[in-house]
Amino acid sequence: MWRMCLVGMVGGFSFAAAGQDSPAQRGVDLAISGRCTEAILLLDQAMRDEHIKTAEKRTVSTAGIRCSMLLNQQNDVMSFLAWLQQQYPRDPEILFLAVHVFSDLSQRNAHELMSSSPESPLVIQLNAESFEKRRDVARAIAEYRILLRQVPDKQGIHYRIGGLLMSQSSMADAPEEAKKEFQEEIKLNPQNASAEFYLGELELQENNLSQAIEHYKRATIIYPGFAEAYGRLGGALLDSGRTADAVAPLEQAVILKPDDPAFHLSLATVYLRSGRKADAEREYALQKSTSEKINQNIKTLRKTVSGEPAAAADPAKQR
Amino acid sequence: MRRLLAAALLLGAAFAQQKHPHFTDVAPHSRFSYVTNNDLSPRKYFAQPMCGGVAMFDFDNDGRMDIFFTNGAKLPELKKTGARFHNCLLRNKGGGEFEDVAGTAGLAGEELDYNFGVAAGDFDNDGHEDLFICSAGRNALYRNNGNGTFSDITARSGLTKPPDTMSIGAAWFDYDNDGLLDLVVANYTTWSPQTDKRCAAAGLEYYCDPRLFYDAVPARLYHNLGHGRFEDVTEKSGFGRATGKGMGISIADFNDDGYQDVFIANDTEPNRLFLNKGDGIFEEQGLPMGVAYNDTSNAVSSMGSDAKDYDNDGKVDIFYNDLMGQFFALFRNQGDSFRYVSQQTRLARLSRPFSGWSAAFIDYDNDGWKDLYSANGDVDDNKPNARQHDTMFQNLGGKQFQDVSEEMGEGFLRTGFQRGSAIGDLNNDGFEDIVVTSLNERPRILMNSADSGNHWLALELVGRYSNRDAIGAKVKVMTESGRTLYNHVSVSVGFMSSSDKRVHFGLGAEKQVTSVEIRWPRGAKQTLADLKTDQYIKIEEPLPRQTPRP
């Protein structure tokens, strides 16, 4: 796969600055022809050469990634990719490449873990996570419980089970069971802000606003960058009539995540109820603009993914 | 002695576990050919998922609720090319039997286009319920002649709309309290078979995402001028300033100022709450009032809606359903704004697997707490769980809901692509029944088993100074134990549908009502004292002195 990608992405490129016979060009040519053991040294050397332009280094590092993947030299892969990500932070081609690199590395390391340490509890965890990704909730929970029998004090596992239980709308006792799991998690790791957050969510579902507020507060103390926890804290304070107290957490949520329309909406509501009409108007406007931006992205994404209606589908053209 | 004790224990056990009524589909007992026909074909037109509006109303004033169904049309012709597309009027013969009299009543709609919603209301205050039908194509106003027939008076009514406007639902209400029912129509977009977009994957068509190809349009408001004439006041009333993809319409006096407001659930667009200023102007306040979005600030696929007081605090709350993966939304009215309470009431968790269309508050077990019914089924038929059963979420003391659908009976649990529904008492036994359509199937007429042992009271309000249907009248009931219950006259319920106009109260174990307070739409207050339960009472509005009907 990496060999084919290599030809597709760097084939036909020539180095104007470095010259046709430069080490960089030779490295890329060797990479294209699959002679990666020879290529990798030249590519590495080219990346250190200050005279080679950034655009040319892009080709070199892309070829470097391909060759390092073929040679399974993961450190080199990461170095080449780190350079690309730093130079081209939002470049779709680089992002796409990174998706494949990490996905492939993930699989390779999973196989390595299973083959080198089949007895490790981490193999069980990996298996559970795999079920979780496939949305096979029952089997994922079963695997996590096996893991807990082996390592009862392992942090993060009760939290994972709690999260899975919360997704089970058909289980009547799921919220209660989830609550127990999050509480167990906090016993093992009092610094788990997410577990505190979900306990807040469960209390909110039961309309226990004061308990929800306490959990959200603890989540923000543990992790001051937790925008959702600030948002929920503000919402819960607002719902319990503590409008003035809700202002600060919602303002913090907006600072942490200025692109989230929900926080702007909540903050606008708080401002409105506090008599701060101008601030409310500003937040409503921000809610609208951030929401429109998201919708526009969704629209574009959907059109790109599912395609515009086919030309043949135009009723006028059908007739 | 021991036997008596055993009997007492058994009785205690019976009381401890209250029996839930269930529903039985009696439609198979009646001969009628109506099938909700959306002209399904491999060519998927945008209009097809929305078909099968229902009205439950007493067209012949015999005291029994009759049923009207709208139907689709041939596509792309957009015409009712045969009887299979005709609309249907089922006359209630009593005993759970119905007969189709649409042909003789003049309501088959042979000349109509692709019909969606229907709104029943006595717009001319002559004591006979009329019908307004929404369409892709022309909308239609049918005047009830009072002799079992209807006349299409659309042409001279002034009920016009911009070309190709797709009108989904409508609601009668008196926005200016002049005693005449006005009309609001929820429009979705502009569409015709010729402008229909086609979406396909791997050679199979699917219904296009409305966000990508269809623009939002405003709802239209028509002022009733009397004598069957209406004026389009969309622009001057403020309705024209807020667009949407209108689905359910709910009418209520949300801010308790004596004027009827309008909530419109919009598909993939912010919901709208038009607050009536009382001077002919409405202000769209969905965002500041907190009902435009759910708590994540996302515009979801809002579908059917209803506005009732679910927690008996005297303030009208709002509910709407939406598609699976989203959460049905319940907004509690706090007086000055609404609070989204789907999480707290467990509705979020209960509703996630369902795609809801029509919806209603219905106190199906008469315990005095309005439960939530949803007619479910996905938009398209291309997902494994697309066919769905309806849901009944029981209201537990105005705090939370629990799913009791499995107890509602086989007829209730029939899976399909359910769409329109109406709520009302078809056999006048005091327990509310449900009529629901399903795409390309016969409708279900779900009769309530009425066996919870609970008591009830139902009022038929007749306006004499206010609109005759008394739409908008508020009723407060106080029971012997001091319990206070609230309801109001509201027929626009759910999606594309119109429900029984009578005001229903479940009373639980209470056998006596100490007082009934009525606030009529035009302001008159009326109080009745010491009423026995388990009866229908017809109450006429007291006339103000020297004030003639307009």
Give a brief rundown of this model.
The complex is a heterodimer of chains A (319) and B (550). Chain A is an all-alpha fold.
Describe this structure in words.
The complex is a heterodimer of chains A (319) and B (550). Chain A is mainly α and 319 residues long. Chain A folds into three domains: 2-112; 117-190, Tetratricopeptide repeat domain (Serine Threonine Protein Phosphatase 5, Tetratricopeptide repeat), CATH 1.25.40; 193-298, Serine Threonine Protein Phosphatase 5, Tetratricopeptide repeat, CATH 1.25.40.10. In chain A, 76% of the residues lie in helices and 0% in strands. Chain A contains 17 helices and no strands. Chain A has helices at 2-10, 23-32, 36-48, 54-71, 74-87, 92-116, 121-133, 137-150, 157-166, 174-188, 193-205, 209-222, 227-239, 243-256, 261-273, 277-306, 315-318. The two termini of chain A are 45 Å apart. The model of chain A is unreliable at 308-319 (pLDDT under 50). In chain B, 7% of the residues lie in helices and 38% in strands. Mean pLDDT of chain B is 94; it is low at 1-16. In chain B, strand 15 (220-226) and strand 16 form a beta hairpin. With 550 residues, chain B is mostly beta strands. In chain B, strands 1-32-31-30 form a four-stranded antiparallel beta sheet, with no helix packed on it. Classes of the chains: A mainly alpha (319), B mainly beta (550). Chain A binds chain B through residues 169-170, 174-175, 201, 204-207, 235, 239, 260-262, 264-265, 268-269, 272-273, 280, 284, 287, 291, 295, 298-299, 302-303, 306, 309-310, 313-316, and chain B through 76, 193-201, 208-209, 211-213, 287-288, 290, 293, 295-299, 336-337, 339, 341, 343-346, 348-350, 352-353, 399-400.
Write the layout of secondary structure elements.
The complex is a heterodimer of chains A (319) and B (550).
Chain A: H1 2-10, H2 23-32, H3 36-48, H4 54-71, H5 74-87, H6 92-116, H7 121-133, H8 137-150, H9 157-166, H10 174-188, H11 193-205, H12 209-222, H13 227-239, H14 243-256, H15 261-273, H16 277-306, H17 315-318
Helix pairs in contact in A: 1-4, 2-3, 2-4, 3-4, 4-5, 5-6, 7-8, 8-9, 9-10, 10-11, 11-12, 11-13, 12-13, 13-14, 13-15, 14-15, 15-16
Chain B: H1 2-16, E1 23-25, E2 54-57, E3 66-69, E4 88-94, E5 97-100, H2 102-105, E6 114-121, E7 130-136, E8 140-144, E9 150-152, E10 165-173, E11 182-190, E12 199-201, E13 204-206, H3 210-213, E14 217-218, E15 220-226, E16 229-232, H4 234-237, E17 243-244, E18 246-252, E19 261-266, E20 272-276, E21 282-284, H5 286-289, E22 305-308, E23 317-320, E24 329-333, E25 338-340, H6 347-351, E26 356-362, E27 371-376, E28 391-396, E29 400-403, E30 418-424, E31 433-438, E32 444-448, E33 455-462, E34 474-479, E35 484-488, E36 503-508, E37 512-519, E38 525-532, E39 535-540
Parallel strand pairs in B: 33-39
Antiparallel strand pairs in B: 1-32, 2-3, 3-4, 4-5, 6-7, 7-8, 8-9, 10-11, 11-15, 12-13, 14-17, 15-16, 18-19, 19-20, 20-21, 22-23, 23-24, 24-25, 26-27, 27-28, 28-29, 30-31, 31-32, 33-36, 34-35, 34-37, 37-38
